[in-house]
Amino acid sequence: MNLKDIISKEVDRRKTFAIISHPDAGKTTLTEKLLLYGGAIRLAGSVKSRKTNKYAVSDWMEIEKQRGISVTSSVLQFEYGGYCINILDTPGHQDFSEDTYRTLMAADSAVMLIDGAKGVEEQTIKLFHVCKMRGIPIFTFVNKMDRASKDPFELMEEIEQVLKIRSYPINWPIGTDGDFKGVYNRELAQIELFEGGKHGQNIVSSTKGSVEDKVFLDLLGEHYYNKLCEDIELLDIAGDEFDKKKFDSGNLTPIFFGSAMTNFGVQPFLEKFLQLAPKPGIKDSSEGPVIPESDKFTGFVFKIQANMNPAHRDRIAFIRICSGRFSKGMSVYHVREGKEVKLSQPQQFMAQDRTIVEEAYPGDIIGVFDPGIFQIGDTLSEGNAKLEFEGIPVFPAEHFARVIPADTMKRKQFLKGINQLAEEGAIQVFKQIDIGIEAFIIGAVGVLQFEVLEYRLKNEYGVDLKIQKLPHRFARWIADSTIDPRKLTLTSSTMIVQDEEERYVLLFENEWSISWAKEKNNSLELHDIAKKS
Ligand code: G4P
Known about the structure:
Layout: H1 3-12, E1 14-21, H2 27-37, H3 62-67, E2 75-80, E3 83-88, H4 98-103, E4 109-115, H5 122-134, E5 138-143, H6 152-163, E6 166-169, E7 171-174, E8 182-185, E9 190-193, E10 203-205, H7 214-238, H8 244-248, E11 252-257, H9 266-276, E12 298-306, E13 315-323, E14 326-327, E15 331-334, E16 339-342, E17 347-349, E18 354-356, E19 359-360, E20 365-369, E21 379-381, E22 399-405, H10 411-424, E23 428-432, E24 440-444, H11 448-461, E25 465-470, E26 474-478, E27 495-498, E28 504-508, H12 511-520, E29 526-527
Parallel strand pairs: 1-3, 1-4, 4-5, 5-11, 6-11
Antiparallel strand pairs: 2-3, 7-8, 8-9, 9-10, 12-13, 12-21, 13-20, 14-19, 15-16, 15-21, 17-18, 22-24, 22-25, 23-24, 23-27, 26-28, 26-29, 27-28
Helix pairs in contact: 10-11
The structure holds guanosine-5',3'-tetraphosphate.
Domain Tr-type G: 12-281
Protein name: Peptide chain release factor 3
Family: Belongs to the TRAFAC class translation factor GTPase superfamily. Classic translation factor GTPase family. PrfC subfamily.
C-alpha cells in the first residue's frame, strides 16, 4: 500500500469526540464503560479512581492530587470493531477551565451527557454552545434511566428550548417513574429489557416490526404497554424525522436513553455512534482546504500543559493531527515562528499510561515536548511553510481578580510567570486603563485557575501573590476597534481593560449592565468570544 492509501484507511477508521456534561451526570462512568468495551482498561474503576486519590492518570500537578480532581484534560484512545476511537477527556469538576472549551476545538463530534432527573444543566449549556459554534454533530445520551427521571417528552422539550436544537429519539424509555423496564428501539422495533445486572442483553423484537405487537403487551403489562404505544404514536406524528444533514451540521441531535452505571444502552449507543459520527474532515486553512488524506502532515496546538512531570519541569504541547501521517522525530514547519522544528518525545495518552508514539494519523492527539516555542493555536505543517489554520478563540472568562506580587522587587519574575501562564492559556491577562498605575486584571474561565496561578507562581517563579477577587463576571470585546470606550455611557461598575492584543474589553458585573451598555450606546456591538489574531 502506498502512503496515501495507508493514511486514507486510517482516516476512515478514526472517530474523535468529546463528552460534554455537567459534573455528576456520569461522564466518568460512561467513559469507563466505553473504554471497557474496547478492552482498553481491565478493571472498572481505573478512570473513576482519577477522582479519588488512589491513582490518577492526570495527577500531573500537585494541586490535582491535593484536591483529588483533574485540572487538565487528557485523551483516551481505544479500539472497537475495527475503529480507532479518541475520547477527548475534559475536567469534570465545577471549576472547569478554558482548556475544557479548547479541547472541543479538537473534536469532530460531541456526546452531550444529561442526567435524566436533572435535565439540561449550566455547564452543559456552555459547552454545548461551543460545539454549536463549530457546527459539529452532537449526540445526546440521557443517563441514569435506572432511576426515576423527568418525563422524556419534557426532556426533549427542554433540549429543544434551552439549546435550540431539534432532537430525534433513537430509543424511548419505558417506566421513567422509578420502575425502569428498558427502552424501545424505534429503528429495529424491539424492546431492550432492563434487568438490573444483565445490561440490556435481553432483546425482544416485534414480529410485525411495530410497537403494537402484542408480544410487548405480555412483556410490559397493560399500563406500560399502553403508555409506550401512545408515546411512540405521538413521536411518529409530531416528531422530526432523523435528517442526517441536519445532524451533520449540528442542528439535530439523536437522543439515546440509558444508564451508564448499569451498562444499559451503552453498547447500542456506541455502535450507532460509530455508524453516525464523522471521521476527521476537511479543515480550512490560509492555503485553502486541507484534506485529511493528504500525504503531508498538518496539525495544530490546542493545549499546552506545563509541569506534567514536576521532576522534569517539562512542558507538553498537545497537537491535533489534521492531515497526513505523523512519525516519531519528524521535522515540520512551525509556521508562526517561520522555522523547522523536530517533534521530539511524541507521546500518546492511552487510558493509563503515556506511551511513545511511533506514528499517528488525522484525528489523533499527540503530546510533544515543548521547549517553550509553542502557543495555543500554532499550526505545524510538513512541506508548506505558509499554511496556517485559523487560531483558537479566546473563550469568555467569568472570574476576574486584580493580581500583584506581594513583594514589589519580584516584578520581573511576576511578569514572566503570568506571561507564561497566559501563553499556556491558563489565564487571560488584561490591563486596566487610565488609572495611573500598571494594574493587571487576570481573567479565568474557572475560579480554580487562581489557585493554579498562585501555586505555580510561588513554586516556579518564587513569587507570592496578592489576589483581590473582583465582582465582574462577563468580559465583552468591543466589535468596532475604532470606538473609544472612554466615550461610552457605562454603569459605574463597568471596567474598561485591554487584552494582550490591546483590544478594548468591557468587564461587567451582570447581564443587566451589558444590556444597559448596548441600549445607551446606540446598539453597541459586543462579542463574548474573541478571535486570536
Ligand atoms: P461525572 O464524571 O460526570 O462527574 O460523574 P460520575 O461518572 O462520577 O458519576 C456521578 C455519580 O452518578 C456517581 O455516583 C455514579 O456512580 C452515578 N452514576 C453514573 N451513571 C449512573 C447511572 O446510570 N445510574 C445511576 N443510578 N447512577 C449513575 P456517586 O455516588 O457520586 O459515586 P460512587 O459512589 O458511585 O463512586
